[in-house]
Amino acid sequence: RGGDARRNGPRQGANLRAGVRITFDDAIRGVDKELEITLKEECKTCNGSGAKPGTSPETCPKCKGTGQVVFTQQSMFGTVRNVQTCPDCNGSGQIIRNKCSDCSGTGYIKVRKRIKVPIPAGIDNGQSVRIREKGEPGEPGINGGPRGDLLVNVTVSRHPKFQRQEYDIYSTEPITFAQAALGGEVKLNTVDGEVLYEVKPGTQTDTRIRLKGKGVPSLRNKNVRGDHYVTLVVQVPTNLNEDAKEALRKFDEACG
Question: What is the C-alpha separation between 6 and 56, in angstroms, rounded?
């Protein structure tokens, strides 16, 4: 009986699904997006009853308005009592003899609406945002329930420089041979803009440095962020003029 009660209780409407594309920066900072979707709204002509104005739905004679029919069956274990949704009224408990012409007896009409979707900071590619009660309406009648939800799947565009792994960001940054050998300040790109970093003298190519707290905000707390790991790549100079070539030869001799 408990199972029957749950199956025949108020039925929530179906969920709707939609998709939205955002930039890498929008995923880091959060953004509001607007979607235009088709929703079912209560028919104003019949006030959602589905019946032609001036008429009313009638109580289903088969289930007497309960939305369920009960039948018994004999088996080797004795009499079995089965409860099923009424086939005549589909569980609504009502029969509409004269249907509303605007909604064809459904009680709903389709309308286009613009829905504001708040995308939280830190969302990742493929994750969804749930907008409560913006889905399909619940079934009418005794089993009527709340609207379903709108599930918005988020696609995050690739960034030309940054890559993300969970809440950390990874990138590579070129530095000159002189900067690597002598050390000094270099500008590094982050999602928060350029930052200055002091390179140590003698830095080797593929050295990875950590910029703490420059990664992706946590979905639970945007004030908690991951880190940004930057790989420094030493650039070999090309298209040298004669003065630069001579300077490199002297440098090579000085280094033995």
Answer: 29
C-alpha span between 87 and 68 (Å, rounded): 8
Quick one: how far is CA 201 from the chain centroid? 45
Q: Per-residue pLDDT tens for 64-123?
A: 888 888 887 777 777 788 888 888 787 778 888 888 888 888 888 888 989 999 999 999
Residues 6+ apart with CB under 8 A from 170: 162, 163, 164, 228, 229, 230, 231
Which residue type, as a one-letter code, is found at position 179?
Q
Q: Is 60 exceeded by the pLDDT of residue 124?
A: yes
Tell me the C-alpha distance between 10 and 7, whole Å.
Answer: 8
Q: Which ranges constitute the DSSP H helices of the chain?
A: 2-7, 24-29, 177-182, 242-254
The answer for residues whose C-beta is within 8 angstroms of residue 183's C-beta and 6 or more apart is 198, 199, 200, 201, 202, 203
Residue 157 phi/psi, 5-degree rounding, is -65, 150
Cα distance between the two ends of the chain:
91
* CB atoms inside a 10 Å sphere around CB 156: 20
Q: What letter would DSSP give residue 66?
A: S
Residue 8's contacts (CB-CB under 8 Å, 6 or more residues apart) are 67, 68, 83, 85, 91, 143
Q: What percent of the chain is predicted at pLDDT more than 70?
A: 94
Structure tokens at 134: 């913006």
